[in-house]
Design a protein that fits this description.
With 596 residues, the chain is α+β, with helices and mostly antiparallel strands. The chain has three domains: 4-199, no CATH class; 219-399, no CATH class; 442-595, no CATH class. The chain contains 30 helices and 15 strands. The strands form six sheets. A five-stranded mixed beta sheet has the order 1-11-3-6-2, sandwiched between helices. The longest helix is centred in the C-terminal third of the chain and has 22 residues, at 574-595. The protein starts with a strand and ends with a helix. Residues 12-216 form the GmrSD restriction endonucleases N-terminal domain.
Length: 596
């Protein structure tokens, strides 16, 4: 069986297919990442007759309708979106989004004398030798005779025949051929991905989420194209509030839809903790609503796949789109979303930098929506979701092959219920060995992107702990303000005593402290700066620290899990100090987890 067919089509035909919707190009809402110079090079290659690579489409399967008829599937664009966007920008004149989500025109200029293309700039705009914008000529907005006549009028000394020939060549760009690889509808996602990776040697990763986005963007029958906008617009409003005006002015149909009503609150809302991208919105909505984790299953379901008979039926597709729509609307719902963010923050995870795994957040939100949908009391939901989130961070649950883990977890929760499955996970992963050995050794690290260390900081925020040597400044405030991380044994002091960066930058040597304290401690060994703090308490001169009693100092060290050896410590005590502090940090994390 042929898995694909390869054919050539003129640029003009390709663009007419896109205008007519025969190739479903995912709404070009995601930023165009090519630099304008790359668009120029593409146009130059077409002009010179050079190959410009292939566009890959995958035909949707034919679907059996309720009346028994077969409906032919559309072609979905799998690879070549940037090239097609470049062609529509340069030739059709369509505006594109840059990486800052601003709409821009990319105008390509042409110099018929030198046969050079370039991105339009002021110098070319003022030069008679350059045609400012190629698109009206290629696009038939201006007749070729008029274009030649106008050019010769401002360049009277040039060779008339040469100019005529070159402007005609420019116009012929739309007849130049582009290669199209059409993949057969019977191929599964994994095969399509494999083909994509083999053709695309640039190391571009095509995720199954991209298939889902292409799939829903190409669907008008069940409103998938509007769902695609719901996902894109929501993600965009999180980072660009001005985009709301764009929706109202330029997408009136969407602005009057129920989907817009669901998401418009984000135009004035904020999220600097979760900040989901389209893949996260899809992941959480799908996991919650379908109790599945593999995007390849979602693509099959949206295609109408009957897993038992191996046929494609419109009733299955219709139901799957309906479920996905409900999942997406629940995801963007203001009450759900804001309550979930508050829940995460109330667990001490107050900043994005404390959460190393986006999929832990995605799964926890899916779980939150699922338990809410089941009508579980809010206090119980909070308990289970907080525990699940922190447990998944501690054991790096979704760091490897996350899809299969997500699939397994949601199916088990569906089958056994959250209480039983969470107990099972805790018994399997969070036993005595984990708390006393595995967690302690995870803290033996010089990386602050360490899950155990970040959960430790969350525990400190949860307890509202004060910063090191500070009376009232909280660690949570310093984390939010990007405050100073201080070395308990100053790095210059340790470096002078022969320690390497890997040794002195251990996370067990770190505390959050106020900048003034950090500067005043400088490179003093701990026993010196602690004795200075004690002297200042006696003399009632608060210079290094705002702590004003010996008892308060003792308590400050205790809440920051700092062994009392610090009072007398020199570099010789450093290694034992680290061992001791890691144990204290691990037991803080355990106590915190048990309170959630």
């Amino acid at each position: 069986m042929a898995k694909y067919s390869v054919h050539q089509q003129p640029v003009e035909t390709l663009l007419s297919w896109i205008k007519a919707g025969e190739i479903a190009i995912p709404e070009i809402q995601r930023p165009f990442v090519w630099k304008a110079a790359k668009v120029r090079d593409l146009i130059d290659s077409l002009y010179q007759g050079y190959p410009v690579g292939y566009i890959i489409t995958w035909r949707n399967p034919d679907v059996k309708l309720k009346n028994g008829e077969l409906s032919a599937g559309k072609k979905v664009l799998i690879d070549g979106q940037q090239r097609i966007t470049a062609l529509t920008a340069a030739i059709v004149g369509r505006r594109v989004l840059n990486k800052n989500y601003k709409e821009i025109n990319i105008r390509i200029s042409f110099n018929p004398i030198t046969e050079k293309f370039d991105v339009l700039n002021k110098a070319y705009e003022n030069s008679p030798e350059w045609i400012n914008n190629i698109n009206p000529i290629i696009n038939d907005e201006i007749s070729i005779t008029k274009a030649i006549r106008e050019y010769l009028k401002v360049n009277p000394d040039v060779n008339e025949n040469l100019i005529e020939e070159r402007i005609e060549n420019l116009k012929r760009i739309k007849n130049k051929q582009v290669g199209i690889i059409e993949l057969d509808h019977s191929l599964d996602i994994d095969t399509v991905t494999d083909i994509f990776i083999r053709i695309n040697q640039k190391g571009v990763v095509l995720s199954n989420a991209d298939f889902v986005m292409s799939k829903i963007a190409s669907d008008e029958t069940h409103g998938g194209n509007k769902m695609r906008k719901l996902v894109d617009y929501f993600c965009r409003l999180i980072v660009d509030k001005d985009f709301n005006k764009h929706i109202i002015d330029n997408d009136k149909e969407f602005a009057s839809s129920e989907y817009y009503k669901s998401l418009k609150w984000m135009a004035t809302g904020s999220d600097d903790l979760y900040v989901p991208e389209y893949i996260d919105v899809l992941r959480a909505s799908y996991t919650y609503k379908f109790s599945r984790g593999k995007f390849s299953d979602l693509v099959a379901l949206l295609s109408g796949r009957n897993f038992e008979t191996r046929t494609y039926e419109d009733t299955i597709a219709e139901n799957s789109y309906k479920m996905l729509s409900e999942g997406l609307v629940d995801f963007v719902n203001q009450t759900n979303y804001q309550r979930f963010i508050m829940l995460v923050k109330s667990a001490g995870l107050i900043s994005q930098k404390l959460i190393s795994s986006k999929n832990s957040l995605n799964f926890s939100y899916a779980l939150y929506l699922k338990l809410r949908n089941q009508g579980m009391p809010e206090s119980e939901i909070q308990h289970y979701v907080k525990r699940w989130l922190v447990m998944s961070l501690l054991i790096s649950r979704y760091s490897g092959s996350s899809e299969s883990m997500i699939d397994e977890d949601i199916k088990q929760i569906n089958e056994k219920g959250i209480e039983l499955y969470l107990n099972q996970m805790e018994q399997n992963h969070l036993g005595k060995g984990f708390w006393e050995f595995a967690l302690v050794s995870q803290l033996e690290s010089s990386s602050i992107n360490n899950n155990a260390y970040n959960v430790y900081l969350a525990a400190q925020c949860y307890e509202n702990a004060p910063a090191f040597l500070s009376k009232s400044m909280k660690i949570s405030s310093l984390i939010e303000q990007r405050g100073d991380i201080h070395h308990l044994f100053p790095k210059k002091y340790l470096s002078k005593n022969g320690k390497t960066p890997k040794q002195y930058n251990q996370v067990a040597n770190f505390v959050y402290t106020e900048q003034a304290t950090n500067i005043k401690v400088g490179m003093m060994p701990p026993k010196d700066y602690i004795s200075k703090v004690l002297d200042q308490i006696k003399g009632n001169v608060l210079d290094i620290s705002t702590i004003d009693s010996g008892k308060m100092l003792e308590n400050n060290l205790w809440v920051n899990d700092i062994p009392s050896v610090l009072y007398t410590a020199s570099d010789l005590d450093y290694d034992n100090f680290l061992i001791e502090r890691r144990k204290l940090m691990a037991s803080k994390i355990k106590a915190y987890y048990e309170k959630l």
